[in-house]
Amino acid sequence: MSRIVYVNGRYVPYGEAQIHVEDRGFQFADSVYEVCEVRAGRIIDEPRHLARLERSLNELRIDRPMSDACLRIVLSEVLRRNRVREGLVYLQVTRGIARREFVFPDPPVAPTLVVIARHVPASKGDAAAQQGIGVVTTPENRWQRVDIKTTALLPNVLAKMQAKENDAREAWFIDRDGYVTEGGSSNAWIVTQNGVLVTRPAESGILRGVTRTTLFDLARREGLTIEERPFTIDEAKSAMEAFISSATTLATPVIRIDGAPVGDGKPGPVVASLRKGFHLIAEWRAI
Ligand code: PLP
Known about the structure:
Blueprint: E1 4-7, E2 10-13, H1 24-28, E3 31-39, E4 42-44, H2 46-60, H3 68-81, E5 87-94, E6 112-119, H4 122-131, E7 133-139, H5 154-165, E8 170-174, E9 180-183, E10 187-191, E11 197-199, H6 210-221, E12 226-228, H7 233-237, E13 241-246, E14 250-257, E15 260-261, H8 269-281, E16 284-286
Parallel strand pairs: 7-8, 7-14, 11-12
Antiparallel strand pairs: 1-2, 1-6, 3-4, 3-5, 4-16, 5-6, 8-9, 10-11, 10-13, 13-14, 14-15
Pyridoxal-5'-phosphate binds at residues 35, 182, 185-187, 207, 209-212, 245-247.
């Protein structure tokens, strides 16, 4: 069965899908996106992803391509047509097609909407979580509006490439004051020697991860203490555990930072229990 993607009102074979050369997503990264986990034929935490999409669109004054109800139908349909029951669904909205001018098109043009589904076996993430991952650190060099989930991801691409070249899976950005902001495509956490969860406040220098928010719900339910504050790399290296969170990795333990072990250099029990409990508390929607 060939893969099918959704582009501006049509479901088309992957190899035939096209975007206009003057799409502003292509020329200016004038576009936003979301990635949702798909598990057992269900979309995980869809309401939170759609709420964040709405926020990103509003912040950039991009028109909605369609209502949430219609968007949910398109997401389901792309998953159904590709028979994806485990993996992810990606959606991107650009400001649309217009002659290349920096300012917004006037009158406004219709936004572009693309939806892609991909099968990824859950066992892949579980294997990484069993083993734990390494991260490298890199100076924060992104713009200040990283709270908006835009496709302007070149610093993230370069940071993650640096990670790959150093045998690591993620890069943690470090701000001017020496604090970790977040990963190239994930939020960053530590568990202190006292068992307190620490992660940076979403108001400063990070994307408010949907997985992060759901982990807050879970941690509260499990009676864990959370401190929303920045932490340094030294603090992370001497923490009991460290981990990343995102829709595609869930909570995945970090066992090495710039080659130095975190704690005893093995995945710890706190992140294991958060990972295990995640789907009990996340919202599921049948496709
Ligand atoms: N931070 C960044 C920069 C990201 O790109 C992502 C996900 O792609 C996250 C955090 C985690 O967000 P979520 O949990 O919604 O996937």
